[in-house]
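Please, structure for the following, as C-alpha cells.
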Amino acid sequence: MKGPAVYVLQFMGDKPPFDNLENVCKYMADLGYKGVQLPVEIPSVLDLDKLASSKDYADEIKGTCESAGVEITELGSHLTGQLVAVHPAYDVLFDGFAAAEVQGNPQARTEWAIDRMKKTARASKNLGLKACVSFSGALLWPYLYPWPQRAAGLVDEGFKELANRWVPILNEFDENDVDVCYELHPGEDLHDGITFERFLAATGNHPRVKINYDPSHYILQQMDYLQHIDDYHEFIKAFHVKDAEYNPNGKSGVYGSYQDWIDRPGRFRSLGDGEVDFSSIFSKLTQYGYESWAVLEWECCLKNAEDGAKEGAPFIAAHMIKKSETAFDDFAKSGANESLNKGILGLK
C-alpha cells in the first residue's frame, strides 16, 4: 500500500496555499503527504481538455506535483460522474456542477458529462495512472424507500439505462487501461454492495467496473464495512480514508430528519474522531494484497479543514502496514522433504 495521500478537492479555494496546483502540492508535501488525488472539475488544478489531448501538458502537471514532493494518485471525477445520470427532481440542484452552456438542458448536460468522463480516461493514461475515482450518478434515488410501492421493473429499467450511459465510458477507460472506481455513496444508484452488483451485471460484468472503498459511507448506512472488504476485495482498487460516527437516538436515525450535518446521527468526522476501525481496515486490505494509495478525503462537521489535513498524514502513516515477506516462524522450518513427511505421518 502507498501513502499517505490526500484528495485536494475539499481544500481548493481562491486564497493561498489552496489557490493553485503548485501551492497546494507544496502545502500537502510539507504536512507529510506523498500523494495527491486531483479533481478534474477545478480549473486552478488542471485543464481537463488539455490533459486529455496533450502528453506534454500531462508531463507538466506531473512535474509540478513531483517538484513539490508528491505523486498523483488518481484523478477524481465525482461531480462529473454525478452528471452522467440525474433524475429530473435534482436537475436544478445539480446544474451548478455543469458548464454554463448546458445548464437547463438535461440531455445536453448528460452528453457533456459523458464526454468529460471519456476525456478523464485519456487524461489518466497521459498521466500514467491506472485508476480514476468517481460517482455513478442516479436515476433511482428518489425511489430508494419502497413507498409508494415501486412499479414492477422500475429498478431493472433504471440500472439498464445507467449501464447504457456508462458502458461507452467504460469502453473508453478500457482502451486506455484505466479502471473506474465508483465510490459507493448515498445519493448514487451505486451506494452499497447489492447496487454495485446490479450495476456490474447490467454492464455485462465490464472489467473496468471497480470500487473506491470509503468506510464512512458504510457507517452512515449501518453496513458491515469490514465484511464489505471480504466480499469485494477483488474490486477495491482505490481507498478513501475517511472517518464517521453514528449516534442514533429516539428522535432521529439513518435518514437524518432533514437536519444539518452537525445535528445528524450519522456524521463525517476527521480521522481518529469517529468510530471507524482503521486498524482492522488496513489489516484486511493488506491481507488481500491492496497495493494502491491510502487517500485522505477530509470532510468533518466540526473540525477545521487545515487541522484535519495536519492530523491526517501521520494518522494514515501510523496505520499503514508493510507486508512481511517471510512468516514469523520461518526460522523453524525444515524444508520440503517427501520422505521426511511420510515418516512423520507413519507412512511407508
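The mean pLDDT is 96. The longest strand covers residues 2-7.
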